[in-house]
Design brief:
The chain starts with a helix and ends in a 7-residue tail after the last strand. The chain has 215 residues and is an alpha/beta fold. The chain is built from 8 helices and 7 strands; from the N terminus they run H-H-H-E-H-E-H-E-E-H-E-H-H-E-E. The site of S-adenosylmethionine has 22 residues, from helix 1, helix 4 and strand 2.
């Protein structure tokens, strides 16, 4: 299955989950809140990749009421739900695939949560390079995502992916912390840190484009 086909499978999956998504993900609020809490204080122009129904933006707009947020997401039903939130007027939504849609430029920060564990490492490096290109110098990339706890788990999920052809449900293929960091380094990010992402199997990764601003 190609990356494009897998991304369409992800889209079909989330389009079908819209009635239950927010309830299921209320358990994951800590993983979402960490994004806003990790942002530089001056952050204003923010790109949220895979923002879905906007759960991470609830806390973000409390902390950053002046933020201008762009959300790119492939799943139209998720974005329709986001558009019903009271902060929707402060969000620009773009419905499309990360690998195809132009990101724009000069963002203070790019954030993402629970959205990048659908990509193989080489695909992720490609995406990270695209993110680097849309950040201001010193800008932040913050990713809170599912991780593989061991190299064996990472490898096993890749095997599941290869065996998944023809099935309707997408397969999660999270990387280990070490591979997440290596992907960020290979893409050209600096000042990379990692920590717990609010659940045992979630990692929080923060990295910068070049030099850091005073936050
Ligand atoms: C688990 S949801 C997370 C939504 C939100 N960030 C949250 O934490 O509640 C993953 C989101 O990533 C989006 N997504 C996954 N792969 C994508 C891709 N290739 N391009 C654009 N959006 C994608 C999905 O459509 C979905 O809305």
């Amino acid at each position: 299955m190609t990356l494009e086909e897998r991304n369409q499978q992800v889209r079909a999956f989330f389009n079908g989950k819209i009635d239950t998504y927010d309830n299921v993900h209320s358990e994951y609020m800590k993983t979402k809140v960490l994004l806003a809490e990790s942002l530089d204080k001056y952050a204003k122009k923010i790109l949220d990749l895979g923002g879905g129904t906007g759960l991470e933006l609830i806390h973000l707009f409390e902390l950053f009421p002046q933020a201008q947020v762009t959300v790119i997401d492939i799943t139209e039903n998720m974005l329709e739900k986001l558009k019903t939130r009271d902060f929707a007027g402060r969000v620009t939504t773009i419905c499309g695939d990360f690998f195809e849609v132009p990101f724009g430029k000069d963002f203070d920060a790019v954030i993402t949560t629970s959205a990048f564990h659908h990509f193989k490492k080489d695909e992720k490096i490609r995406l990270l390079k695209k993110i680097l290109g849309c950040l201001k110098d010193g800008g932040q990339f913050i990713n809170c995502d599912l991780i593989a706890l061991t190299a064996e788990e990472e490898a096993a999920q890749l095997v599941d992916l290869e065996n998944n052809i023809g099935y309707s449900k997408h397969v999660d293929i999270p990387l280990t912390i070490e591979n997440e960091i290596d992907a960020l380094e290979k893409a050209g990010f600096k000042q990379i840190t990692s920590g717990n992402g609010g659940k045992e199997n979630y990692g929080l990764f923060i990295a910068r484009k070049n030099i850091s601003h005073i936050s």
